């Protein structure tokens, strides 16, 4: 987006709003995704401009702390994605009349945690309280996962379906969804560093009822696929053992459907090529190692990432979602440099 025009959005006049609307409507798929039309566009952009003034300094500070390098890029992302999305969630919550449960599906490097943090900041300026919950927070305890691993030695990593306390997740989301609730809600938090990196539940955090719950994770909202999908599966599902593991995890995914039923909306952040997640993980680990911290080698990362591709392969479980309007409200394409690509409503 024209950065000069974006700077003018902080003190817009009629002419600037007209120009901003022209730019907005030029990307018809994104405009449709955020409900921007010729009729309502000026009013929407005036409100967005006001929000931009209110939140830009805080968003810049937050994003710089997360490693963003370019202020122009942050402001562009704020204007084109984060602000309209937060406004959309606020509108949906108002229509719903109770806590909105917004699912966010995204893998390694897609920016789901950043998205949740920025959206929560903007929602505060819209006088809406929110909480972010990760699927990781629903992991079974270390002791329970040890028992699981004894029953099924293939569960060498936490993360695949079957390693979470689904019933607890349902209970928590149901409590948030209760109209006029006054009692606090206890949300588990997970400590990834416990037990030498195997992780364990680190107690519960108490929350008063909120307006929006952002529920994020790497397979939020994914659905079991037909068994025929495993007859000629993508790499690295190669051996008969690989196929059996993938089929078993697919079966486990069935248990998560009641949890997904609690979602009011689902956003999918997906890379232009799912294999980028491996590259991004390597880059992240290399940065950690460069700062003197311990990190995985490239070979370890290959094994780690491919394990999860065998359990829920993106081509089998995420690609169908981004074309299904019944399950997904918003799809956001992530480019190889982590920038935001197309934004659209599946149809």
List the SSEs and their pairings.
Elements: H1 3-8, H2 14-26, H3 28-33, H4 41-65, H5 71-96, E1 100-106, H6 112-125, E2 130-134, H7 142-151, H8 166-177, E3 185-191, H9 194-197, E4 200-207, E5 212-217, H10 240-253, H11 257-260, E6 265-271, H12 276-290, H13 298-311, H14 314-317, E7 330-334, E8 340-344
Parallel strand pairs: 1-5, 1-6, 2-5, 6-7
Antiparallel strand pairs: 3-4, 7-8
Number of strands: 8
* Mean residue pLDDT: 94
Q: Report the structural category.
A: alpha/beta
Low-confidence stretches: none
CATH architecture: 3-Layer(aba) Sandwich
Quickly count the domains: 1
CATH topology heading = Rossmann fold
Spatial order of the strands in the main sheet? 2-5-1-6-7-8
Radius of gyration, whole Å: 21 Å
Strand proportion, as a percent range, falls in 5-15%
Per CATH, the superfamily is P-loop containing nucleotide triphosphate hydrolases
The geometry reads as globular
State the helix count.
14
Described by strand count, sense and barrel closure, the largest sheet is: 6 strands, mixed
């Amino acid at each position: 987006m024209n950065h000069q025009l974006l700077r003018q959005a902080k003190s817009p006049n009629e002419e600037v709003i007209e120009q901003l609307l022209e730019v907005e409507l030029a990307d018809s798929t994104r405009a449709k995704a955020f409900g921007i039309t010729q009729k309502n566009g000026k009013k929407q952009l005036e409100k967005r401009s006001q929000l931009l003034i209110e939140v830009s300094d805080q968003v810049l500070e937050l994003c710089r702390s997360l490693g963003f390098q370019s202020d122009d890029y942050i402001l562009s992302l704020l204007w084109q994605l984060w602000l309209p999305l937060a406004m959309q969630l606020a509108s949906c919550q108002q229509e719903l009349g109770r806590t909105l449960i917004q699912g966010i599906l995204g893998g390694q490097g897609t920016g789901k945690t950043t998205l949740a943090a920025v959206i929560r900041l903007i929602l505060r300026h819209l006088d809406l309280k929110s909480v972010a919950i990760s699927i990781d927070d629903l992991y079974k305890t270390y002791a329970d996962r040890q028992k699981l691993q004894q029953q099924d030695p293939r569960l060498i990593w936490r993360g695949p379906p079957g390693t979470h306390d689904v019933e607890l997740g349902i209970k928590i989301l149901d409590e948030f969804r209760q109209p006029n609730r006054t009692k606090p809600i206890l949300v588990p938090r997970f400590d990834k560093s416990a037990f030498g990196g195997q992780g364990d539940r680190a107690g519960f955090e108490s929350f008063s009822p909120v307006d929006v719950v952002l529920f994020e994770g790497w397979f939020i909202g994914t659905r079991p696929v037909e068994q025929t999908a495993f007859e000629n599966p993508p790499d690295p599902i190669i051996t008969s053992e690989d196929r059996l593991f993938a089929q078993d995890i697919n079966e486990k995914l069935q248990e998560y459907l009641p949890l997904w039923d609690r979602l009011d909306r689902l956003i999918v952040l997906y890379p232009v090529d799912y294999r980028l997640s491996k590259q991004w993980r390597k880059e992240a680990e290399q940065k950690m190692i460069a700062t003197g911290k311990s990190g995985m080698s490239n070979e370890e990362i290959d094994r780690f990432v491919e394990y999860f591709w065998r359990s829920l392969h993106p081509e089998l479980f995420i690609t169908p979602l981004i074309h299904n309007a019944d399950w997904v409200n918003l799809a956001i394409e992530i480019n190889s440099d982590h920038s935001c690509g197309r934004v659209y409503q599946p149809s």
